[in-house]
Every structure is written in structure tokens, then in C-alpha cells.
Design brief:
3 helices; 40% helix; 6 strands
Length: 89
């Protein structure tokens, strides 16, 4: 499974309600995150879908929903350029 790593030039700005904004310094784009996505961002610098699924289940998600959610989240973050393949993959 591919390990994805957060880009180091992306900065998280947290809001009082738990949501947040990611600012991509390389292109000036800003991405809105819900509270769960902020918690994921803060909890790990790199993830495989299996690791993120495990984390989501440990934080109360149903396993089937967690599995689908992990793949969707990582896919969207990669598509937005916020995560990239780890160099050892």
C-alpha cells in the first residue's frame, strides 16, 4: 500500500470550532477542512489507507465507513497536492 506524506510547505490554521484551513505556500491555494480532517492532519505526517482506517476506527468510526473514508480522504488530499507519495515508495 502506498504511504502518503504531508507536504512540509503546507500550513494548518485552526479555527475555534475545530475546523481549519490549509495554506499551500507553493501556489497560494487555501483548502478548508472539517474538524475530523484537522484531527487527521494533526495526528500524523504520513499515512497508508490501512493506518488511517485503523485511526478512524479507534476514534469511533464504523470499520466499513472508516475504510472508505480513509481512501477518499487520502485520494482527495493527494489530488489537491497536499499529500504526496513518500520517497521510499
Amino acid at each position: 500500500m502506498m504511504r502518503l506524506i504531508q507536504r512540509s510547505d503546507v500550513t494548518l490554521f485552526e479555527m475555534d470550532d475545530g475546523s481549519g484551513l490549509l495554506h499551500d505556500e507553493s501556489n497560494g491555494h487555501t483548502h478548508a477542512l472539517n474538524a475530523e480532517a484537522v484531527a487527521i492532519w494533526r495526528s500524523g505526517v504520513s499515512w497508508t489507507p490501512a493506518e488511517l482506517t485503523e485511526w478512524l476506527v479507534a476514534n469511533g468510526r464504523d470499520e466499513a465507513l472508516a475504510r472508505a473514508g480513509a481512501r477518499t480522504f487520502l485520494g482527495q488530499m493527494r489530488a489537491a497536492g497536499l499529500f504526496e507519495p513518500a520517497s521510499d515508495d
